[in-house]
Amino acid sequence: MSGPLVVDIHTHVYPPAYIDMLRARKKVPYIHNPSDGGPPRLIILASDDDSNIPVDQRGRPVDSSYSDIKVKLDFMNKHGIDCSVISLANPWLDFIGEEQASEWAQKINDDLESTCAQSNSTAAPSARLRRLFAFGTLPLGAPSPAAIADELHRIKTLPHLRGVIMGTTGRSQGLDDPNLDPVWKALEDTQLMLFLHPHYGLPDEAFGGPEIVRRYGHVLPLALGFPLETTIAVTRMYLSGVFDRFPRLQILLAHSGGTLPFLAGRIESCIAHERTFKVNGGNVQGPQRDIWDVLKTNIYLDAVVYGTAGMKAAVEASGGTTDRVLFGTDHPFFPPLNEEDEKWASVVTNYSAIDKSFEQNADAIARVLGGNAIRLLKLA
User: DSSP class of residue 331?
Assistant: First the structure.
């Protein structure tokens, strides 16, 4: 019962219905059952679905940690986590066509609400916080942005949902797509947090081609592709004036914003020298607010960064305050390297980075570990 409260805001769940849907598919994303009886394989990256890779070796193994909420709770207990804000993992519902998008979003969100409610009703009386909350998912393939906004307003009525998770492509046209304006407005109106998470990375050619990507496994697309995907997506959103039109947006960026904290100054300098953008033969004025103001007003960063240099950059980009950085684990990805390991190295590394970055400031550590999430998402 001692020590700061710990809230994991970056932790994923594939509900059983979602798993069954992926098993029924034959193209990315899909789940394959190997012929040798090994664990099912989840193929969610296009680079994994390569004819040069035997189908039984594509993707990554999927065990009960992906869908069994009891495994999630055991993981929390093992790592001292009081509360988790669970969310559907990539690729969410990006691949669902307009006929079924809204139906599936409602089903997933209702499942998340039910899972949280049931878990919290059986929690030990000594629990310092309710164990589970959730970020809902959006029907981005719905026929109109209005249908997406409708689901946002419905999510607001679900007691355990505190925001939504979304990928960086929006409705497949990027986050600078003007058709997303009704979604940004609905997020402002509901004041729900948007958790922005990468999925598609960069084209294989950015790393030297498919052969180079295969040579090094998932290192290039995950270590470099994901962070740069986030940086590019948010920069396009910023350049198009989204934060000028919707100044009350609240967005949490996965993996500490990718490379945004490091590159923000360069982005700002390039905008200042560009002055106007060429659109349809005319001049369009760039964003009115500087990027540092957006980072201090609209953007929050998770602490899934695995080192003190990244942690300090996240704090510096947030205006030098620890009020905008939130602890996360990225469970169930990056599991222990050895079966006998009791703790997950990925989680221990994040804990260590927080401790080392703020070792002289217990209040800062408490804010990053849980206090910020409790305040921002109203979890108390």
Answer: B
* Residue 94: pLDDT over 60: yes
Q: Rounded mean pLDDT of 85-103?
A: 94
- Which CATH number belongs to the domain containing residue 254 in this structure? 3.20.20.140
**Could you give the 3-state DSSP secondary structure of residue 11?**
strand
Instruction: Give SS3 for 305.
Output: coil
CB neighbour list of residue 234: distance below 8 Å, 6 or more residues apart: 168, 175, 196, 251, 253, 257, 258, 260, 299
Q: How far is CA 249 from the centre of its chain?
A: 16
Termini Cα distance of the chain: 16
Which pairs count as long-range contacts for 216-219, CB under 8 Å and 24+ apart, including other chains?
218/45, 218/60
Contact 317, 266 (CB under 8 A): no
Place of tokens 């992906």: 66
In order, the DSSP letters of 163-175 are EEEEETTTTTT-T
In a domain, 333, yes or no: yes
Q: Which two tokens stand for residue 218?
A: 């998932």
Could you tell me the two tokens for 314? 């996240």
Instruction: Encode pLDDT of 259-297 as tens digits.
Output: 999 999 999 999 988 878 887 777 888 899 999 999 999
| Assessment of whether the complete model's pTM goes beyond 0.85 | yes
Contact 327, 371 (CB under 8 A): no
> Whole domain around residue 85: which residue ranges?
7-16+69-377
In angstroms, the CA 325 to CA 364 distance is 10
Q: How many domains does the chain have?
A: 1
Q: What contacts 181, CB < 8 A, 6 or more positions away?
A: 145, 245, 246
User: How far, CA to CA in Å, does 221 sit from each of 88, 307, 348, 360?
Assistant: 20, 19, 23, 36
Give yes or no for a contact between 373 and 9, defined as CB atoms under 8 angstroms apart: yes
- Residue 38 placed within a domain: no
